[in-house]
Amino acid sequence: MRALGFSPKQRQVLDWWRRDGFDAVICDGAVRSGKTFALSVSFFLWAMARFHHQRFGLCAASINGARRNLLGQARPVLERIGFRWEEKVSRNEVTVRGGGRENVFYLYGGGDEGSYASIQGVTLAGVLLDEVGLMPRSFVEQAAARCSVAGGRLWFSCNPAGPEHWFYKEWICRAGEKQTLYLRFSMEDNPALSPQVRQRYERMFQGAFYRRYVLGEWTAAEGLVYDFFRAEDMPQAPEGPFSRWRISCDYGTRNPASFGLWGELGGVWYRVREAYYDARERGRQKTDGEYAEDLRELAGGRCIESVIVDPSAASFMETLRREGWRVRKADNRVLEGIRRTAQALKDGRIVICRECRAAAREFGLYRWEEGGEDRVRKESDHAMDDIRYFVMAMDRGGGSAARFVERDAF
User: Fold this and answer.
1) Residues in Cβ contact with 317 at an 8 Å cutoff, skipping those fewer than 6 apart
2) With DSSP H G I counted as helix, E B as strand and the rest as coil, what are the percentages for the chain, rounded to 5?
3) What is the pTM of this model?
4) 192: buried, middle or exposed (CB in 10 Å: 19+, 13-18, 0-12)?
5) Is residue 399 predicted with pLDDT exceeding 60?
6) Which stretch of DSSP H or E encloses residue 336?
7) Over 70: is that where the pLDDT of 276 sits?
8) In angstroms, what CA-CA distances link 309 with 58, 300, 321, 388?
9) What is the pLDDT of residues 118-145, one digit of tens each?
10) Count of CB atoms within 10 A of residue 399's CB?
11) Residues paired with residue 328 on neighbouring β-strands, in sequence order
12) CB-neighbour burial class of residue 386 (10 A; exposed 0-12, middle 13-18, buried 19+)
């Protein structure tokens, strides 16, 4: 194993199962720290060394994730040392042979509360759960209950979240009483990661995400969400010419509605203008048709590549489609959206311009809820939501269909 370039921490993972006294292993810590690679290789080595004609579970937030992160990383190493693979993709099943033994590995996706039904009823000799912090408790507990063969063990990997996360409280804080080996990884534990790449990852994150994904700490998100943003540093919108235009929308009837106009210039997306309407403050709600007129006015004659809309605004999306706009339903994953937005702001891939006063105000108010859970306060968040929707759609392309309005674009 040393010749394959494993770090000392990874070698701990590779041979922990040779020692008595542990029923499970947990590997958490920084992103890109090599924990999933070591865990997946070790899981197969253990299964093939200790069992014959048994079944095992490979679990991730999605089946594609299990195939990519677990099979994809382990297979080249194991084939180099003589194991043979037969994968039945349609059945999410892999048969591994070597050393006179044969075992079957099933792939499971545990991304939502209904996922536990997919693993219910099967008997397994061992289960590997990658990204366990993204899985609902019902799935994880069902997977653990399936591991009933004598000598079976549980294998977990995850990146840290908040200290109120159920897995942290039930497994990491109780590792000793559960006879579980707990190993925390840092980026230095991945020998394949160069110092330059480590530095790039360190620059990518801020606040609680830095402490979690770089330092590997289970820490609460607190204070301002975008604590690095300074309204006084917002530039004026450049004159252009812009190569593409998009609009992002957070829809509201009684709550405020926020629309942002984005133009691409030199590979950077600028939020150059916005429309913001607070029905409570104005004393009157707007109809879908009136909001569609606001959007036309914000577009101002520009060729709008796509309009990214709050996924809950079904009637508004239908109104826009009937008027000829190319509408895209927004990705509403809040924490992932916040992380990507912070990264895009720090990298300079998006710029909020001085003309966007509502966004500037909300950046100074948008805060995490107190209490240790990963939730943002549901106030002063409407421009924040439409910016997040834009960022989540930013790299997915805009297509060729676009809506033209008659006036000239600046």
Assistant:
1) 309, 327, 329
2) 40, 20, 40
3) 0.71
4) exposed
5) no
6) helix 334-347
7) yes
8) 36, 18, 11, 11
9) 999 999 999 999 999 999 999 999 999 9
10) 10
11) 308
12) buried
